[in-house]
Fold this protein.
Amino acid sequence: MSESFQEKIYVSIRDDIIKGKYQVGDMLPSENAVAKIFGSARMTVRNAMIRLIDEGYIFSIASKGYFVKEKKFNKYTIEFNESRVLDLEVDDVKLISLNIIKPDVDLAYHLRMPSDSKIVAIKRLLFVNGEKAVYDEKFIPYYTGIPIDESQINYATIPEIISNKESQFTINKKLSIKVIQSDTKVTGILGLNSLTNVFRVEQSFLDQEDNPVGWSRMTFRMEFFRIKGKVILNK
Amino acid sequence: MSESFQEKIYVSIRDDIIKGKYQVGDMLPSENAVAKIFGSARMTVRNAMIRLIDEGYIFSIASKGYFVKEKKFNKYTIEFNESRVLDLEVDDVKLISLNIIKPDVDLAYHLRMPSDSKIVAIKRLLFVNGEKAVYDEKFIPYYTGIPIDESQINYATIPEIISNKESQFTINKKLSIKVIQSDTKVTGILGLNSLTNVFRVEQSFLDQEDNPVGWSRMTFRMEFFRIKGKVILNK
DNA sequence: CAGTGGTCTAGACCACCAT
DNA sequence: TGGTGGTCTAGACCACTGC
């Protein structure tokens, strides 16, 4: 079958933008004008416009029109996942400890929990190619219903652990990556020779109202760090 | 004015997904069924469905139906931009050199240029809080039309430099971040005491057919590295 | 075969905007 | 006041799916 009508309209306007016929900030012809030009219904034009919005070429202002969007170059997508760490394949996981603790200052801040509350603390060591690569600490507010059983928790991610309480669709995450000087504890666990630089990847897990439901802190040996990213759309 | 019809349908189905009435992989009621339930036209239901797709809750298969999508947790957005480096404010830029060179092995590979071709090489030093922080090297295939004038090039980004030749809408980027041991050249330029770990951020600039139109390599001192990210939608 | 989503039509009313 | 995009209707035909 031949190209659909909305495809023709989409391609035509997109190419006019790429070729510079419409410049950033310019208003496009109205839906009715385009419909007239192409001899189609207005809803068909709308579908093409929706696609142009989706692809990041234009935006709309109600009662005014469609406008060419400025292209932003500074947003990348990266993947980060608790079990498959960046580009690395984790080939072994060792559970170091599993405790119920009271929050220290960091936890009180990140989980917004008072000093007398209970928190599940899971500490694990991840191996890549047989070498100690990442020290992983997870902290989850303790509610009945959370499994605090080694067999269930060893490989689990925070969303999986708390999924009894929260639907997977309610959880959001934030991430922060920086370099810090390793302290003696981390040096010992990762088997580093002396105080040295390590990566700190912190993730906050939030519910739909942005209340913290978990916090994780992963400490990487330098050699095991690598990120790749691609530009994402202009949204 | 009250909630629109498509808003009601969107919220109703979204909440059914969040509450678990529809589980991952489940098929939703058909457009006609939903239209009947809500007493609306099919196009109104479609608009609500399009929004659910856009928000990452569902996907559609033609002639089959709409299905609840698995939520992926591992995609983050980060911002990276040549003039505002990660979270840092660059307060000074010093142009080290601006030459036309022939490609070395790295450049021949990344720019796909033969050994006898001409490449514009721009090398700069970026300062943060008055300190040497980043060594920035940019490489662009030399075509007539590219300004090779210091005043024009000092603060420019690659997309800006090549925008005479290519529309801004044709450029894509890829990014790679890793840690390397600094060589003596970088050590000297960044004023480091000895060989030490540094960040390497490489960006490839591509046109719409994925042909390279530029390549940049930025070398960061450790202390000036920090990334923040947010989860993005399920696309 | 009946049902599905994808495409498309030819209308309609609305709130909002610029003049 | 006339034009805009946003919402909505009540139809239609299509290719494709699963039975």
User: Anything to note?
Assistant: The first helix of chain A runs from residue 5 to 19.
